[in-house]
């Protein structure tokens, strides 16, 4: 049993979604790093420089002379606070109005007392918002005379980042669309032709040949496609020749077989026992060859028929199966078998009466032929998911999976339970498959060595 696998189409879509998710995550992570590592750091450096500049202006010209510089900073959307009150300097440093709501911890106060310009990033107590600011101390004779604080609300910085997000998202969407177009192009150029060739190979394996091939492509897949097309055409030509040969051979054998059969029947009337025994063998083999010829001719006719050129008519399927059961019951009783039958009587399908009879007869007759004397065969006709379902189950020798997969191949004879002494020639189920296909149905076969075989025919039911 082959291991389950993920189709190449699913793999492509998985790659697309994975790359999209990774791209989105990478984009936002990159934006965050740029915001935190470059933009905020640049703001910190600028705020520190502004605070140092104001402190130097304050030291050189006094508080009144720096008002123009403070106004200039405020016009640039910076907040400035110059604290000279010794009581406030000894306890806290205001950042926003009201100034009494803003505190500086002990470690920051110690840094300011040493004359070091510090950068503060904290939650605003009053407004519950983040602030980024720089505090520059003005120290005279070892005493903290004033502190200049320049800050900007982080919300403003975030607003600028949010303003960039539409451009980032637009770029990201454009990249995802480009990736989508590229994958669609790859699928159309490489994947889709391969899937069509896979379907064509599957059709060939079931005895039919594709009528459509992928378009001509000027790449490696195109070369494979052309090679596959030549192979399919060559196989089709050989198959046509083989069918013509079998058909011609069958017609040519009909006449001499008729003579052999007729003469053997005459010899059976002879008084000589030895002659009658030889004639019996000849008659038996000529009958077998006659069945072979007729089945080959019949199969050739069926292969030339399609669902479009047959006229189906409403049928009560139980009536057809009942006729088949009456036909085979004597043969089953002769082998001492238990042949049971149950059916739903109201199943109506569209079909060909004679051909449906032939298909059901082949399946049930096979079960009788390959089940040992005294065995059991159950024939059940019912409905399943809007279909008429005929299931024929026997407790014969059964077959392995390799045999089951090839049972509908022409002239295939499984190694187990399907020997020549049973009279089979390997065309019965091939004919059944063609007949079921003509009825828009399907044929399923399950088997287990030593347990038995179930052959199921499913044909769409005519719903009122």
What does this 3D model show about the protein?
The protein is rod-shaped. Mean pLDDT is 77; it is low at 91-103 and 416-420. The chain folds into three domains: 1-215, Beta-Lactamase (2-Layer Sandwich); 220-303, Helix Hairpins (Orthogonal Bundle); 309-460, Heat Shock Protein 90. Helix 6 (220-267) packs antiparallel against helix 7 (273-303), helix 8 runs parallel beside helix 9 (353-370) and helix 9 (353-370) runs antiparallel to helix 11. The longest helix has 54 residues, at 8-61. It has a five-stranded mixed beta sheet with strand order 6-8-9-11-10. It has a four-stranded antiparallel beta sheet with strand order 1-4-3-2, with helices on both faces. The chain contains eleven helices and eleven strands. The protein has helices spanning 8-61, 67-75, 86-91, 106-113, 154-205, 220-267, 273-303, 317-334, 353-370, 401-405, 428-438; strands at 79-83, 118-123, 130-140, 143-153, 313-316, 338-343, 348-351, 376-384, 387-394, 442-448, 452-460. The protein is an alpha+beta fold and 464 residues long.
């Amino acid at each position: 049993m082959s291991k389950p696998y993920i189709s190449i189409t699913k793999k492509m879509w998985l790659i697309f979604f994975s790359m999209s998710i990774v791209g989105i995550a990478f984009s936002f992570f990159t934006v965050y790093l740029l915001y935190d590592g470059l933009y905020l750091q640049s703001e910190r450096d600028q705020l520190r420089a502004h605070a140092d500049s104001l402190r130097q202006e304050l030291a050189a010209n006094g508080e009144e002379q720096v008002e123009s510089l403070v106004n200039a900073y405020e016009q640039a959307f910076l907040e400035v606070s110059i604290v000279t009150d010794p009581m406030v300097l000894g306890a806290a440093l205001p950042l926003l109005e009201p100034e009494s709501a803003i505190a500086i911890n002990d470690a920051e106060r110690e840094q300011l007392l040493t004359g070091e310009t510090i950068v503060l990033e904290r939650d605003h107590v009053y407004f519950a918002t983040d602030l980024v600011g720089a505090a520059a101390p003005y120290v005279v004779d070892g005493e903290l005379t004033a502190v200049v604080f320049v800050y900007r609300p982080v919300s403003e910085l975030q607003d600028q980042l949010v303003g960039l997000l539409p451009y980032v998202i637009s770029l990201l969407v454009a990249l995802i669309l480009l990736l989508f177009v590229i994958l669609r192009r790859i699928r159309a150029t490489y994947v889709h032709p391969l899937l069509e060739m896979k379907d064509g190979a599957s059709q060939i394996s079931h005895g039919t040949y594709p009528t459509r091939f992928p378009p001509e492509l000027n790449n490696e897949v195109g070369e494979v496609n052309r090679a596959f097309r030549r192979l399919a055409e060559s196989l089709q030509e050989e198959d046509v020749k083989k069918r013509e040969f079998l058909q011609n051979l069958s017609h040519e054998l009909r006449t001499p077989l008729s003579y052999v059969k007729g003469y053997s029947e005459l010899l059976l009337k002879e008084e000589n026992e030895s002659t009658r025994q030889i004639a019996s063998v000849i008659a038996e083999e000529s009958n077998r060859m006659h069945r072979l010829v007729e089945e080959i001719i019949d199969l050739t006719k069926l292969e030339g028929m399609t669902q479009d050129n047959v006229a189906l008519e409403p049928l009560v399927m139980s009536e057809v199966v009942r006729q088949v059961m009456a036909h085979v019951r004597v043969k089953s009783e002769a082998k001492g078998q238990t042949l049971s039958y149950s059916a739903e009587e109201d199943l109506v399908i569209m079909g060909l009466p004679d051909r449906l009879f032939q298909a059901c007869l082949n399946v049930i007759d096979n079960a009788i032929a390959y089940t040992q004397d005294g065995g059991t065969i159950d024939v059940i006709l019912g409905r399943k998911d809007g279909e008429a379902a005929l299931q024929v189950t026997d407790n014969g020798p059964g077959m392995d999976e390799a045999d089951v997969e090839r049972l509908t191949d022409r002239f295939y004879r499984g190694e187990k339970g399907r020997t020549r002494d049973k009279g089979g020639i390997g065309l019965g189920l091939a004919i059944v498959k063609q007949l079921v296909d003509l009825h828009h149905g399907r044929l399923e076969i399950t088997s287990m060595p030593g347990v038995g075989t179930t052959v199921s025919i499913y044909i769409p039911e005519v719903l009122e």
